[in-house]
Structures are given as C-alpha cells and as structure tokens.
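dumping this here so i dont lose it
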C-alpha cells in the first residue's frame, strides 16, 4: 500500500529556534525512529510537520534536517505557516509558535484514517507502533498512553532497537494517569517540595480541581492523542486559543469527553518516550513547572492555569452543540483552512 493513502497521520509542530536546547538533534531522532518503525511494521503513514513562523536568521527545517527517502510505507509533508500569517494572531509579539493551532493546521490537512497529534521529541515504543499497525483502532474513541521521560543522550547513530533499549534503561519519570503511583515520581515530588515548599500548595490545589473534572489521562496528553480523522474533524481540532499552549490539550480531552467520545488508555509497554530538555522550556513536573510559570509571567505571556482550564471546560460543557451533540468552540475555518499554505513533500 503506498504512503499516499496512509492509515496513520503523525502531526507535530516546530520551528528552528532551538527551543529546549538541542532541538534539531531531538527532531532527527524522532524522524529517524518513525521512519524505521513504519517500514518495519508495514504501517502506511505520513509525517506532517507544521513549521510555524520560521526564524528568518536560521535555515528552514527542510534545510537543517536529514530526511528519509519516501517508501511504500512512509512519506513526509512539511507545511509552513509564514511569519505574515503568524502576525495576524493575538499575542504574536509574545508567542513565536502557537502549538495547538499549528497542530490543527496539520490535522485539517491530514490524509490518514487515524491521526496522532504528538511532538518532535517523542519516540514511540515498538509495541505501540505494532498495535497501531494491526489497524484495529476504532472511531468514537480517543487513545492515550503513558509518556516516559528519558535522558537526552540517546545514541543517535544507533539503530532503532538500541535507541529503544537506551530509553528503557534511562528513565527519569513516568507521566502516567496518576502521577503519584510511581515510586520514582514520588521521590522526585518530595525532592521538589523539599527544595521549594511553596509547591506543596500548588499540587494540593491542582488535586482539588481534578475532583471537578472527568477522570481522564491528562498527563502529557499533548504528546500523544490518537483519534479517527472523522472525529478530529467533528470536534474541529484543539480549541484555538491565541495563548501559550499550556493545558489546551487537557481542555480538548474534556470537551471530547463531553461530546460523547470515550477514552481508551493503552497500558505498558504501549508507551512513548520523551527526550528530556531544559527545565522551564516545557511543562516538566515540579521545579520545571515553577520555572516555566516564572518565565511566562515575566514575559507577560498569557496562558491557562489549571484552575482556568477547569473553569473553561465547564463553560464549554454548557455551550451550544451541533445536531450530533458535539461541543462547538472553533469556527468552520479552524486549522487555517481558508489559507493557501506552502507545502513541501520531502
């Protein structure tokens, strides 16, 4: 089966700005592992990378990375959202990349029967990829897995199996449905609180807010949410809030649930590995969260707190729904559908 009729579309967003440090090497590992896996398991797949607001003083992703040759199973599409389009959005002067709107760009244009929204520093376990390749996924569900954070020194020049073995042996933390069920996570949590006691109140408030929402697998959901293309389209993708991407992925899960979709959380060894990056560049538990919030507040960058996310989810639950019972929060032009965006087939 040719890759031009993919079963799976893998959507991620990036730009060559070295976000989190060593961004290009992390991206290269992500691309190389996907290429090996889909060819190994004969899974017709396309990788869609949305390059958002490319920096003018750096090479494009097409120039900066090594791209695999297309095969019967794997192809790569690079869709660009230019600076001129970025500048039309609110807060464009404070936020250089609108991650969830970017993912919607890829989701809206995806050709696969199923779509997984992920990020550019993720490696799928081989068990997970093998399960997807069986093509037993069903519409009406959103699929979730645990994210395992691993040391960044992955041997980039080694084959897939050695990379996966490295990940299994260099675990930092496990982002499971219930974070505190892991002994390693508990130790890290207590260490963070010992260094910064104010985190105790933060964690306690978050726990209280979680009592008000559906019991879903929210942890690291922006790194892996898998649904049928028809369901992504029915929901109109992620809420297109023109703010930093924090918690928008969780808000999407809640509204999908309110719209009648059911979660299927796959158990280990169906998991993804996340290549660790600099603290404060993303939503890393503990001290990493503290640094991220401090940076956003200092820059005046708007974002959703967890409390605001829960409040907005309740507001969405009571919003007008279409005849199919789907909560409507985006317009019909979601994913910049009316824009003619440059696309390269690599």
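and the seq i came up w/
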């Amino acid at each position: 089966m040719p890759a031009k009729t993919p079963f799976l579309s893998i959507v991620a967003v990036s730009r060559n700005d070295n976000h989190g440090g060593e961004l290009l090497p992390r991206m290269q590992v992500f691309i190389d592992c996907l290429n090996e896996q889909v060819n190994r398991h004969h899974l017709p797949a396309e990788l869609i990378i949305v390059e958002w607001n490319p920096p003018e003083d750096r090479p494009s992703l097409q120039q900066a990375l090594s791209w695999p040759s297309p095969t019967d199973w794997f192809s790569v599409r690079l869709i660009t959202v230019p600076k001129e389009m970025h500048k039309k959005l609110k807060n464009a002067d404070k936020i250089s990349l609108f991650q969830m709107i970017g993912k919607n760009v890829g989701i809206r244009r995806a050709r696969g029967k199923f779509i997984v929204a992920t990020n550019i520093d993720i490696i799928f376990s081989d068990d997970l990829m093998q399960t997807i390749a069986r093509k037993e996924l069903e519409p009406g569900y959103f699929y979730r897995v645990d994210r395992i954070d691993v040391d960044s020194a992955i041997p980039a020049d080694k084959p897939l199996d050695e990379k996966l073995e490295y990940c299994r042996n260099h675990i930092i933390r496990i982002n499971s449905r219930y974070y505190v069920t892991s002994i390693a996570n508990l130790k890290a949590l207590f260490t963070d609180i010992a260094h910064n006691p104010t985190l105790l109140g933060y964690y306690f408030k978050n726990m209280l807010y979680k009592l008000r929402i559906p019991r879903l697998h929210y942890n690291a959901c922006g790194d892996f949410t898998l649904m049928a293309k028809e369901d992504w389209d029915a929901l109109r993708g992620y809420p297109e809030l023109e703010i930093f991407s924090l918690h928008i992925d969780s808000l999407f899960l809640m509204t999908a649930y309110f719209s009648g979709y059911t979660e299927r959380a796959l158990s280990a060894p169906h998991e993804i590995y996340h290549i660790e990056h600099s603290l404060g560049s993303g939503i890393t538990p503990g001290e990493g969260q503290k640094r991220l919030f401090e940076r956003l507040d200092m820059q005046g960058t708007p974002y959703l707190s967890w409390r605001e996310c829960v409040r907005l989810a309740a507001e969405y639950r009571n919003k007008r729904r279409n005849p199919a019972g789907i909560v409507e929060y985006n317009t019909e032009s979601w994913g910049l559908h009316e824009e003619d965006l440059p696309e390269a087939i690599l």
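The mean pLDDT is 89.
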